[in-house]
UniProtKB/TrEMBL annotation, chains A, B:
Residues 1-90 form the HTH arsR-type domain. This is Transcriptional regulator. NCBIfam families: HTH_metalloreg (NF033788). One of its GO terms (molecular function) is DNA-binding transcription factor activity. It holds the Pfam family HTH_5. InterPro entries: ArsR-like_HTH, HTH_ArsR_DNA-bd_dom, WH-like_DNA-bd_sf, WH_DNA-bd_sf. It comes from Kordiimonas sediminis. CDD domains: HTH_ARSR (cd00090). PROSITE patterns: HTH_ARSR_2.
DNA sequence: TAATTAATTAACCATATAGTTAAATATAGT
DNA sequence: ACTATATTTAACTATATGGTTAATTAATTA
């Protein structure tokens, strides 16, 4: 899969989004990450692998502990992709924007 | 699925993202949307259904033509979710932010 | 060395996904 | 009425997903 699809796919799961939020304030071990969730450790382990593949986290082993840390670059890319649509809500005339663009189509790469 | 998961899931496919981009300048019929793609009409039809379920587009039928139009609200919600992480790249000290947050954990709801 | 802890891998299950072709539906035109 | 066009639904295939439990690997502690 292309990187952006990997990123959005990784974000399309509430457990993974909750994990990501839980990493906002610093790195945590896989075990600590798993604690709040009702699912098994292997399930968490696979969520972490999906997130690592998507570039959402880095993993670092220290002894038996595997520390996970939020990684920003792919989140940034996904955000930037979405912000291409910001014109549709940033003005108070979002609906009007769409109507105007329909009636006066412009091209933009 | 919860709405945010639906939205990210709908975005996690390059065909659907291309469709979304193609709607940036106004509504298009399902047939016109399908033209640039090498896949079958039923495949496009299902992509459009996924996008409608996710709230990324509205559909309106006029005779035999089904017009699809970009819809902003869910895109806005997804963008806002992602922007909760903007602190990790907005300063030129993104990396430092993470290090500091690791060493001085704060809570935020 | 034996036992404990942290995490992953393996094997399995049920469901979902993305595509196909063929058939069905619905509107429009002759 | 007949035909053509636009789109969806049905039936099918192959692969991916998200969960489980049991077994495995690796590091720590007694």
């Amino acid at each position: 899969m292309d990187p952006l699809s990997d990123t959005f796919h990784a974000l399309a799961d509430p457990t993974r989004r909750a994990i990501l939020l839980s990493l906002k304030h610093g790195e945590k071990s896989a075990g600590d990450i798993a604690k709040p969730f009702a699912i098994s450790a292997p399930a968490i382990s696979r969520h972490l692998k999906v997130m690592e593949k998507a570039g959402l986290i880095d993993r670092r082993r220290d002894g038996q502990i595997l520390y996970c840390q939020l990684r920003a670059d792919r989140l940034k890319e996904a955000t930037e992709w979405l912000e291409r649509y910001a014109q549709f809500w940033q003005s108070s005339f979002g609906r009007l924007d769409r109507i105007l663009s329909t009636e006066h189509p412009r091209t933009d790469k």
